[in-house]
Each structure stands twice: as structure tokens, then as C-alpha cells.
Amino acid sequence: MSETVRVRFAPSPTGDLHLGNVRTALYNWLFARHMKGAFILRVEDTDKERSTPEHCENLMDIMTWLGLKWDEGPRVGGPHEPYLQSQRTELYEYHLVRLKERGLVYPCYCTEEELDLERKRQMGRGHMPKYGGKCKKLTPDEVKKLDADGKTSVLRFAVPPGEIVMQDEVRGEVTFPDDQLGDFVLTRSDKSPTYNFTVVVDDALMKVTHVIRGEDHLSNTPKQILLYEALGFTPPKWAHLSIIKGPDGQKLSKRHGETSVESYKAKGYLPDAFLNYLALLGWAPKSGEILSLDQMAAEFDLTHVGKSGAIFDPVKLHWMGSQYLVKMSLDDLTRAVLPYLADAQLFTREQARARFDWLKQVVDVVRTSMGCFSDVTKETFFFFSDELHFEPAQSEEMKGQKTLMEAFHKAFNGISEFNGDNFLQAVKEVGKIAGVKGKALYHPLRLALTGREDGPELVRIAPLLGKAEVLKRLMIWTVDDVKTIK
Q: Which of 63, 392, 464, 472 is the most buried (most CB within 10 A)?
């Protein structure tokens, strides 16, 4: 019988979840579901200065919002509790003792200044900087004296000679030459364990079979392999994912714009659309781009995950969001966008109760232009306010359209039933009389009514604005001297 697949997502609760972290969580979740295994959430909250309970609760709230339900971890429990690293201190201390008893670690008293000088010398000679092993040569008596003198120390793992070769599920065979890895730190000067040590203990005790994480952890892998061997644990299979890049090809960061999942949730992206897009950043499913979580899980395969970094494209994310919004019922979509309209003080909940059918029509007109709920404010602004903004060039263009605006005003004023058909017929009649058609006919009218260069068809917009509002907006451009245009 084959071993049950067990994977984990182990974020640090030190701030908002980054897009790259969530893609890592998603790939772990998809792999676990595809293999009918377990998805573990473990919180690495040992950074005493930056980790907070609030951040911890927030990251779990975000995971829940995304629909990435974990099988073991905080809030749900499991056979390998606790799932907060801050509560696992005794386990780390026990396994440190094991390493000490085997003589695989030693105290290091080198100061940061000494270590920095050593690194600079090595780099100046063109060598890979690593610890030279100075304190490894200390005698027991010298160690006792340093301790008695109150010298602070860290605990280092004594790296054995020889290269390390590992098989990566994404990258194939990866070799780490033995001249690149010096004796590394297991505990800091305050005796707290380091990441490389705690992650090995936790993954081993939680029986993690596959470690799927970002390629920025690839350099940690040889250290962790050595610790697995030293502690007598079986190493997991490894899969290191490519980084997500910005449009400039560099690692995605705040300089590229929003990078936290919280910001995209606040904008009103649907979680399924958001995950669908993230899944495509490094993985190419065979059955198309629009896939549910269950469909992605059925098809997900680590062998189809790419090695090169994927470019995060906000435009493509917006398109993906729009594919999901158009599938929502109009009632549900209208209710979902109402809080954004209310926050922008464009339309209140009280008004919505009184004019819900009209509001639905407004949302329906713009829904194909929306990728997230918050888009509704910029797409519908002109329906709720006549304080339209015009660029100087637009104002100059419109000042030259006085005769055309007067013709539109006269034609629309003569319509008894102001609906789409009658509006369109009136526009065509004005065009014939004025000898104008196409963009020259519709562009000035669109500017006058919406203040925008593009948007939904005017035949749908005008009836929702209503005859009185249409005439009012046209009237502005029929006076001889337009003084104030907002």
C-alpha cells in the first residue's frame, strides 16, 4: 500500500499574506486533493517581534475566505498538535539534545563583526562566503572559559564533507557542491532555534511526505537534508516553485503594486477567480483556463509546473475576475456591489431598497467591464452624479459642438416615451440633418452624457439616466460661454 500524501503550508504571521505565499498554499492544497492526501496548516510564529495573534487569525481568515480548507492545524486540531511553532519548544529542545549527544553540534562565539570580516575576505578572493569553522577547534576547557566569561554563543551544526544531490519534483536533479556549505546555525544567541532546524523537526514529526515551496528556499534544502539524516528521519520529496515576477521580470514586490491577498479581497475579487488566476502562474492545465477548484485538483500534477518565473499581470487577473462576475445572478451581483457604492457615497442602502430594479439595470449595463466588485464605482459614477470631469482637450472639443448639442436637445425633448428605441431613432435623425455619422456623431454625445471616451452603448445608458437628466447634461454645452466644467 502506497504512503498517504501529506503536505503543509507553513506561513509566518508577520503581516499580510503575499500572492506568492497563497500560490504556494494553493499548489499544496491542489496536490493534496489530487492525491487524496492531507493538507496541513502550520503557523511558524517564532518571530517574537513581528508575529502577532492578530496576524495569525487574519491569515486563517484569508485561507477560509479562499476556500483552502486545511485537514490539520489551528482551529481544527489533528494528531500532531500543537500546530503553532511557539508551542513546540520542548520538541525542539529534545532533538537538539540528540544532536549534542552525538557530537554533531558545537558552540560558536564569533561576533557579527568577525563573521562579516570573514565573509568580505572570502568574497574578495572570489569564494562563496561560508563559516570557516574557527570555533569548531575550541577545546572543552576553552569553551568553559568563554562561558564563564559570559561570552554569548550560537549553536552550529558540523557539516560533513561531500556534495549533496537531491531530486526535485519540478527542477529535476540539483547538486550542491561541498565547498558552498559551511557549518550553519541551529540556535541563536538567545537559544531560540532557527528556521532550518524547526522546519525539519516539524515536517518529520508531522509525517510530511512532500515539501512544496518557493525556490527562495532551495538554498535551505541541503542544510535540511543533512539534519534529516543526522536525526534519523526520512527526508520528504521536494518541489521548489518558481517565483512570481512583476512586469519588469523582477521578483514581485510592493513597487509593482498591490501584493497582498487582503488588498484583492478588499477590492472585491471573487476568491474562485483569484485562485483560478494564481493557479495559472506556473502551471498549464490541459482543459482550459477557467477551472473550479475541484477541476484544478482533478488535473493538478507537479510534473506540469514550470521552472521559469511567471509574470503577474493585473490585466489578466481583471479579465479572469470578469469571467466569474458575468456568471453571477444579477440580483446577487447588485447586492454584492452595493457596499462599494455606499462607501463611495454614490448610492445608499435606503435608495437601493426603493429603486432596486433600476440599480440592477445599471449594474447589468456595466457588468462586462467589471473584474471585481469595487470596479462598480468608476464604471457607474456618471449614473449617480452629474459632476463629470473633462480634460482640457475634451472641453475644447465640446465647446465646438454647440450646434450638435442643441440638435440633440431638441430631438430628445420631443420624445414622449424616452426608451432605447426612440433614443436611437432620434440620434439617427440628428445625424441625417447635421450630415454627421459614426464617431463624429456619437463621441460628443457620449462625452456630454458620461464624461467618458468609451463605455456601454448609449442606447442602454440614456434611458437609465432619464430624459430630464439627459437634457440637463446637454444643456450645459448649448450656452455660448461654458465657464466651469468639472
A: 63
Among residues 69, 136, 144, 254, the one annotated as catalytic is 254
Domains and CATH numbers, the chain: 6-76+244-316 (3.40.50.620), 88-241 (3.40.50.620), 328-384 (1.10.8), 392-478 (1.10.10.350)
Place of cell 447586492: 335
Give the mean pLDDT of 219-244: 97
Sign of CA dihedral 321, 326, 329, 332: positive
Per-residue pLDDT tens over the stretch 6-57: 999 999 998 889 999 999 999 999 999 999 999 999 999 988 778 889 999 9
| Residue 265 bears catalytic tag | no
Sign of CA dihedral 262, 217, 44, 24: positive
Total count of residues recorded for the chain: 486
Question: Please, which residues have CB within 8 angstroms of residue 396's CB and are 6 or more apart in sequence?
Answer: none
Closest among 155, 46, 182 to 97, alpha carbons compared: 155
CA distance 108 to 151: 10
- Written as nine digits, the cell of 149 is 566569561
Mean local confidence (pLDDT), 322-341: 97
**Residue 306 grid coordinates:** 514550470
- Please name the residue that has the C-alpha cell 489530487: 34
Q: Which residues of 338-374 are buried (b: 16+ CB within 10 A; e: fewer)?
A: bebbeebebbeeebbeeeeeebbbbbebbbebbbbbb
